[in-house]
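Two folds, back to back.
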Amino acid sequence: MLHLRLIAPPDRTEAVVTAIEKTVGTTHLVVLHGAARVPHGDLVLCDVAREAADELLEELRALGLAEDGSIAVEDIDLSLSKRADAAEEEAPGEPADAVLWEHLSESTHEESTLSVTYVAFMIIATMIAACGVVLDNAVLIVGAMAVGPEFGPLAGVCTALVQRAPRLAARSLLALLIGFAAAIAVTTLFSLAMDALGQFDKGMLEDPRPNTSFIWQPDPFSFIVALLAGVAGILSLTSAKSGALVGVAISVTTVPAAANAAVALSYGDLGQMWGSAEQLLLNLGGIVVAGVLTLLAQKALWRIQRPPTHRRPNTTRTHKNTTT
C-alpha cells in the first residue's frame, strides 16, 4: 500500500475527493478542511493499493495539485487494517507488476542529475577498477562495479525515451558523458602517478590476465549480459527491489572497461584502449535497448491487466472532516 498526503486548493477539494472515492483500491480517506497553511488549502489523506496508484496520480496531476497544491507519496511498510487488505484485493493486477511512472520519472531524475557526488563516485569506482585490472584482481573489479553510479543515468535515458521526455534524456546523457570522461581522465593521471611510484608498470597491463582480460576483449556474450542486466535493472527499479539492482551493478563491465581504457591510454596501448572502449559502448547500448523494451513491455502488459476503466460508483459523503 501507498500513503498519499495531498494539499488541495479549496475549490478543487471536491474533485480530488471524488477522484479518490471512484478509484478502486483506495481506503482510509481523511479530509481536513483548511488544515494546510503553506500552500493554503485542504489536507486530504488516503491509502491506495500500489496497482491503483499510477492512475490516481495521473488524475490528481490533471487537477493541478502539483502546481497549486502538493502530492506526496510514501510507502507503507506495515498496515494492520482489514479495509486496507480489502482495497488491495479489490484492485486488479499485482503490486509487483505495477509501474508508478511518476515515481520512476522522479527517481531517475534524481539519479541522473550531474553532481559533484555523482562524479566523485564515478572517479573512485574507476580508480578502484584500475587497480583491479593491473593486479588482475576480480574482487576489486566487482567492488568497483558495485560503487559505480552509472545505472541511474542509464535508467533515466530509458525512461525518457519511453515517456518522451527530452529534458530527462539530455540530463541523463550529459551525466553519462561527463561522468565517464572525468573518470577516464582522472584515472589516467592516477595510473601515471602509480607508475611513477613504482606500483604500476606496463608489463602488469600486458601480461596474461585470466581474470580480467575479458574487459577489453568484447564478444557476443558481452552484449547478451548487458541485455539481461538492462532487463533486471529496470525491473528492480519499477518494483523497488534495491537488492536486485546491486546484482545488476556487478554484472556489467562499464566502469572496469573505462578503467582499462584509462590505464591503457596512460601506457599508449591503443589496442587495449579501443577494445575497452568497444566493451564500454556495447554494454551501455545493450542496457539502454533492453531497458526501453522492458518498460514498453511493462506498459503494454499493465494495460491488459488493468485497463483504465476501474471506477467505483458515486458514493455519498459529507463535507466535514471524514474518514472512510
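---
second:
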Amino acid sequence: MGKHETSTDTQVLQRIQSHEAGWVFTPADFADLGSRDAVATALKRHKAAGTIRLLGRGLYDVPCQHDLLGTLWPSVEQMVDAIARKDGLRLQPIGVYAANLLGLSEQVPAQVVYLTDGATRKVKVGPMEIVFKRTTPRQMAAAGRLSGLLIQGFRSMGVKHVKPKHIESLRSRIPAEERAKVLQDLSLAPAWMHAHLKEIAKP
C-alpha cells in the first residue's frame, strides 16, 4: 500500500469515527479525501475489520449495537439522507410514512415511499424497502418543507379522517414560526385541506 493510499485510509477512518453509531454514508462522502479507488480500498478494509457494514450497493453504516437486540438497522431517514447527498436529490415522503412522521399515524410501513425529482428505483436494506418515485415539479414544489409533509400526510389519511384532534396535536408540537410558513404553499394543497392548514398556521 502506497503512501497516498495510507493517507486516504487514515482520513476515511477518522471521518467515520467522527460520526456516531448509526451514521449511513456512501463513498461520495469521502470524495475529497482521495481517488475513487483509494476510497473504495479504504472502505473495503474497514468493512473487513468490522468497523463499518455494507447495507447495499454503495451504501454503508457504522453499526449500532443494542444490549438486548444486537446489531440494529439504521433509520429510514439516515439511509435516505445518505442517498440524497450522493445523488443530489430532493425527496418528499408520502403515504402512511408521511403521516407517521407527523405523529398522525402509529403505523410503520414495511415499504416507505418518497417522491423524487430523480429516477424511479427501489432500495432494499434489511427488512425495509425504500421506493423512490419520480414525479412532477408541482408535486415536488413543497419538498423538504412542513407544508409538503402535511399535504402528503393528510392525503394518506383522506378527507374524512383528518379530525380536530389531529390539528390540535400538530399545533401543540410544531413551533408557531414553522406553522406560519404553511400558508406560503396553500395553493399547492387540495381545496379540502385549506381550512386545516390555515388552522395549523394560526399563532
